[in-house]
């Protein structure tokens, strides 16, 4: 769930998708309209109240696009340089929109403590999420309704369920990685992405939907997922892009499939013990249960919210462990110490005691948080660091930047899982470490993500030893909204039991 990032490449991609000249004309017209709107907004702003102190504005000589190119190429570097030059709060323009970043724990507090009516999530996210999840859930409904939906899901994530999830994830992982054979070099990120669709579907959707997951359904998920594109973020929904049509078609088909399963569950009378059942049985405060469309929308949302975040995090964790063989062996030894030399099937209570593996995951989420920035629309004027942020700015907080601020973190770029055992300045700052966000929009999938990723990696460490390929540790691939490893090939060798 992350919602933007600009580059010239994205414009090229967008235009590349246009397969006839008619759409190009529409697009050109659209750009014209946006540009005129943008120019008049700039002029208006310059004539507005001179007494208010606005955040420092990073000038750009490129009209309309603004800093999209520099930001798209290397967003973190861009933000860190701006922090050095302008301080924790500053604004700049990309593709006709003004962004104001709040960097560091103190500035970020504004976002996490604000009301949704003032700093609004729907205004920035709904255009992307609603066509994918459907109407009636998440950013399509008033935030107090979404908060109830989050709460309903959360009651389904209890310890008894996690105990089942460990078994399910271990079995899926063993089964999936059989195909890797005894040794080789393979794309780790691709494999983990495929695996996590299966595990997430097993755990979050239940066995009926998991059993329907074949290649055709996987393609539907991929088409749906194609809805999270720069094009969807930039263009109005009515533009007839092929990827939009695919998304909408996939949405309908998946909904139809889910409706059948929900209907069967409702009729069967017997109560399964899983999250789907929790959602079917849950009621809003007013006493009304969720309807089929809301349950199905939640199922789609939960799968996609957990999918990219967990698969990139798992892949990065793998590369950090492959780079540091001693650490990898410590994690394996920890498992033997906690579970027993003969490594019996994983169990939830033992998993909790794998504290080194847990700290490795925590440190991975520090250096490579999958959501590099969160966004809100300022609906009312806001104050941060003595500046007034006007209505209409898109206000952003970046976990990635907060997680590596010079003033907050010692040896900030080092992968050091033991840093959490020692005193560190970050511990005293409320929003220095925010991979799961904070406040009313905070993630509800954190515990599930930890269970899932720790189970996958415990299982993988039992099966294989991992190495970098000729010492190559992946660079960051900034192409998509989530920062994945670039060329994520890993070398592996099966462990002798
Ligand atoms: C490593 C894994 C994950 C990370 C790093 C992560 C990160 C985040 C972040 C940063 C937010 C806040 C977004 C914002 O404030 O704009 C968020 C919200 C959320 N996440 Fe996660 N997430 C992860 C896994 C999951 C999973 C597995 C699920 C569901 C099964 C999930 C469901 C949600 C939901 C429902 C929200 C609420 C959005 C809102 O209230 O606006 N996440 N997540
Ligand atoms: C970078 O990410 C894009 C989008 O996911 C992908 O198509 C491309 O193959 C990736 N590049 C490398 C070298 O990993």
UniProtKB/TrEMBL annotation:
GO biological process, one term: cholesterol biosynthetic process
Pfam families: p450
Catalysed reactions listed for this entry: a 14alpha-hydroxymethyl steroid + reduced [NADPH--hemoprotein reductase] + O2 = a 14alpha-formyl steroid + oxidized [NADPH--hemoprotein reductase] + 2 H2O + H(+); a 14alpha-methyl steroid + 3 reduced [NADPH--hemoprotein reductase] + 3 O2 = a Delta(14) steroid + formate + 3 oxidized [NADPH--hemoprotein reductase] + 4 H2O + 4 H(+); lanosterol + reduced [NADPH--hemoprotein reductase] + O2 = 32-hydroxylanosterol + oxidized [NADPH--hemoprotein reductase] + H2O + H(+); 32-hydroxy-24,25-dihydrolanosterol + reduced [NADPH--hemoprotein reductase] + O2 = 32-oxo-24,25-dihydrolanosterol + oxidized [NADPH--hemoprotein reductase] + 2 H2O + H(+)
Sequence positions that bind heme: 443
GO CC field: endoplasmic reticulum membrane
Keyword Endoplasmic reticulum tagged: yes
CDD domains given in the database record: CYP51-like (cd11042)
Keywords: Cholesterol biosynthesis, Cholesterol metabolism, Endoplasmic reticulum, Heme, Iron, Lipid biosynthesis, Lipid metabolism, Membrane, Metal-binding, Monooxygenase, Oxidoreductase, Steroid biosynthesis, Steroid metabolism, Sterol biosynthesis, Sterol metabolism, Transmembrane, Transmembrane helix
InterPro entries (UniProt xref): CYP450_sterol_14alpha_dmase, Cyt_P450, Cyt_P450_CS, Cyt_P450_E_grp-IV, Cyt_P450_sf
Transmembrane domains' residue ranges: 21-40
Pathway: Steroid biosynthesis; zymosterol biosynthesis; zymosterol from lanosterol: step 1/6
Cofactor entry: heme
Topological relation to the membrane, as annotated: Single-pass membrane protein
EC number: 1.14.14.154
UniProt-annotated location(s): Endoplasmic reticulum membrane
GO terms, molecular function: heme binding; iron ion binding; sterol 14-demethylase activity
PANTHER family assigned: 24-HYDROXYCHOLESTEROL 7-ALPHA-HYDROXYLASE, CYTOCHROME P450 FAMILY 7
Similarity comment: family membership: Belongs to the cytochrome P450 family.
Identification of the protein by name: Lanosterol 14-alpha demethylase
Organism of provenance: Austrofundulus limnaeus
């Amino acid at each position: 769930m992350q919602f933007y990032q600009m580059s010239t490449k994205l414009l090229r991609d967008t235009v590349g998708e246009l397969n006839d000249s008619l759409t190009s004309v529409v697009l050109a017209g659209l750009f014209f309209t946006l540009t005129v709107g943008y120019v008049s907004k700039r002029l208006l702003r310059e004539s507005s109240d001179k007494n208010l102190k606005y955040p420092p504005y990073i000038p750009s000589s490129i009209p309309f696009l603004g800093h999209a190119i520099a930001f798209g190429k290397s967003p973190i570097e861009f933000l860190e340089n701006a922090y050095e030059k302008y301080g924790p709060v500053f604004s700049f323009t990309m593709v006709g929109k003004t962004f104001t970043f709040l960097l560091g724990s103190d500035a970020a507090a504004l976002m996490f403590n604000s009301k949704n009516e003032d700093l609004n999530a729907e205004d920035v996210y709904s255009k992307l999420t609603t066509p994918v999840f459907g109407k009636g859930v998440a950013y399509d409904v008033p935030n107090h309704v979404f908060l109830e939906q989050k709460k309903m899901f959360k009651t389904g994530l209890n310890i008894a369920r996690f105990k089942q999830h460990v078994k399910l994830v271990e079995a899926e992982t063993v089964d999936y990685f059989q195909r890797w054979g005894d040794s080789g070099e393979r794309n780790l990120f691709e494999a983990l992405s495929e695996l996590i669709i299966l595990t997430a579907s097993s755990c979050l959707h239940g066995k009926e939907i998991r059993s329907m997951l074949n290649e055709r359904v996987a393609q539907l998920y991929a088409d749906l997922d194609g809805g999270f594109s720069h094009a969807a973020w930039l263009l109005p929904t009515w533009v007839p892009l092929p990827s939009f049509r695919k998304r909408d078609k996939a949405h309908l088909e998946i909904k139809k499939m889910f409706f059948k399963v929900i209907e069967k569950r409702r009729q069967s009378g017997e109560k399964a013990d899983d999250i789907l059942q929790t959602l079917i049985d849950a009621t809003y405060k007013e006493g009304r249960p969720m309807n089929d469309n809301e349950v199905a929308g939640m199922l789609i949302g939960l799968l996609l919210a957990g999918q990219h975040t967990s698969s990139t995090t798992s892949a990065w964790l793998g590369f950090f462990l492959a780079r540091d063989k001693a650490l990898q062996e410590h994690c394996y030894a920890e498992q033997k110490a906690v579970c027993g030399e003969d490594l019996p099937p994983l169990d939830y209570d033992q998993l909790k005691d794998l504290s080194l593996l847990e700290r490795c995951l925590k440190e991975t989420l520090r250096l490579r948080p999958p959501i590099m920035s969160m966004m809100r629309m300022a609906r009312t004027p806001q104050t941060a660091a003595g500046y007034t942020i006007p209505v209409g700015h898109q206000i952003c907080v970046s976990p990635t930047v907060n997680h590596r601020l010079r003033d907050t973190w010692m040896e900030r770029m080092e992968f050091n899982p033991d840093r959490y055992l020692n005193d560190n300045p970050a511990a005293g700052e409320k929003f220095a470490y925010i991979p799961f966000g904070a406040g009313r929009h905070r993630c509800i999938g954190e515990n599930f993500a930890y269970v899932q990723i720790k189970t996958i990696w415990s299982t993988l460490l039992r099966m294989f030893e991992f190495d970098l390929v000729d010492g190559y540790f992946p660079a960051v691939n900034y192409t998509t909204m989530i920062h994945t490893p670039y060329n994520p090939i890993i070398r592996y060798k099966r462990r002798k039991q």
